[in-house]
TrEMBL record:
This is DUF2200 domain-containing protein. It comes from Flavobacterium chuncheonense. Gene3D superfamilies: uncharacterized protein sp1917 domain.
């Protein structure tokens, strides 16, 4: 399934602060913690807790969020379907990065072991 330019633009303009509470609620509802969520975000982006809070407070867009991130080289190992899109087939780089984060949050909420989520052998 190919994303449209409108879809990609909508994702780029979405603020991290608007989605973050949904991430927290999703993982906590399934018995995981905010700390585990932060571990997943740190693994993908190299942001520490202070930086994550700063990005929330300043209401950065996902476009700005990922421009500031140092993406984990193993992020390309994140595969599968999220929100109806096969991650490895998404052509827009920013949309793919946002879906990487969505997939990691989804795996955390589904109870997957942290070693597998963080793509450790």
């Amino acid at each position: 399934m190919k994303t449209t330019p409108e879809h990609d633009e909508r994702i780029a303009k979405l603020t991290f602060a608007s989605v973050y509470p949904h991430y927290v609620a999703k993982v906590e509802k399934k018995g995981r913690t905010k700390e585990e969520l932060h571990l997943v975000i740190k693994w993908l982006t190299h942001f520490d807790d202070i930086k994550i809070q700063e990005l929330i407070d300043t209401k950065v867009t996902f476009e700005s969020f990922f421009k500031q991130a140092i993406l984990n080289p193993n992020a390309e190992l994140i595969k599968g379907v999220i929100c109806g899109y096969r991650i490895e087939e998404i052509e827009n780089e920013l949309t793919k990065q946002v879906r990487y984060l969505d997939k990691l949050v989804d795996e955390l909420a589904k109870g997957k072991k942290m070693e597998k989520i963080l793509r450790k052998n």
